[in-house]
Amino acid sequence: MREDIEKVIVSTEQIDEIVQRLGRQLHQEYQGKNPIFICILKGAVIFMTDLIRAYDDLSEIEFMDVSSYGDALESSGEVRIIKDLDVPVNGRNVVIVEDIIDTGRTLAALIKLLQTRGAASIKICSLLSKEAHRLINVHVDYIGVGVPDEFLVGYGLDYKNQYRNLPFIGVLKPEIYE
């Protein structure tokens, strides 16, 4: 698996530092407010697990599986909800936890959905931001780090549901996906 990686973009140590920083920032804003952290499956699950431990206060966690990619390399533009929330968000402070903000399509659709469901506030926390690939301008409240417009895997990010378990984020060699 590691031999399929061209180069490491975000090391394990850098990820740890980012997660701790974001956890502290979220704690400052939401201390005592019991927010709902919504993990966008499957990519954000590893980040979410580490983030809520760094948050260190009362909170709830929920999961949604929302896709605009499937097994494709590019977003189709069609956003599908595969797994919806198990609890209502009406009147609640919501933090959407994403692994990467790419085109912005999925996130924009998700924000609109949660607004119609009456969330008191909606904030976005993403480990990675790929600005160069953004098609829809979405405001991301908490960003771990900006990344180049390359095919990234590791720490939750995948190619055909593989490589998620790498402890770092790296660029996948083009010969693997071409």
TrEMBL record:
<keyword id="KW-0963">Cytoplasm</keyword>
<comment type="pathway">
    <text>Purine metabolism; IMP biosynthesis via salvage pathway; IMP from hypoxanthine: step 1/1.</text>
</comment>
<keyword id="KW-0660">Purine salvage</keyword>
<comment type="function">
    <text>Purine salvage pathway enzyme that catalyzes the transfer of the ribosyl-5-phosphate group from 5-phospho-alpha-D-ribose 1-diphosphate (PRPP) to the N9 position of the 6-oxopurines hypoxanthine and guanine to form the corresponding ribonucleotides IMP (inosine 5'-monophosphate) and GMP (guanosine 5'-monophosphate), with the release of PPi.</text>
</comment>
<dbReference type="InterPro" id="IPR005904">
    <property type="entry name" value="Hxn_phspho_trans"/>
</dbReference>
<dbReference type="InterPro" id="IPR029057">
    <property type="entry name" value="PRTase-like"/>
</dbReference>
<dbReference type="InterPro" id="IPR050408">
    <property type="entry name" value="HGPRT"/>
</dbReference>
<keyword id="KW-0547">Nucleotide-binding</keyword>
<keyword id="KW-0479">Metal-binding</keyword>
<comment type="pathway">
    <text>Purine metabolism; GMP biosynthesis via salvage pathway; GMP from guanine: step 1/1.</text>
</comment>
<dbReference type="InterPro" id="IPR000836">
    <property type="entry name" value="PRTase_dom"/>
</dbReference>
<protein>
    <recommendedName>
        <fullName>Hypoxanthine phosphoribosyltransferase</fullName>
        <ecNumber>2.4.2.8</ecNumber>
    </recommendedName>
</protein>
<dbReference type="GO" id="GO:0016757">
    <property type="term" value="F:glycosyltransferase activity"/>
</dbReference>
<feature type="domain" description="Phosphoribosyltransferase">
    <location>
        <begin position="12"/>
        <end position="159"/>
    </location>
</feature>
<keyword id="KW-0328">Glycosyltransferase</keyword>
<dbReference type="Pfam" id="PF00156">
    <property type="entry name" value="Pribosyltran"/>
</dbReference>
<keyword id="KW-0460">Magnesium</keyword>
<comment type="similarity">
    <text>Belongs to the purine/pyrimidine phosphoribosyltransferase family.</text>
</comment>
<keyword id="KW-0808">Transferase</keyword>
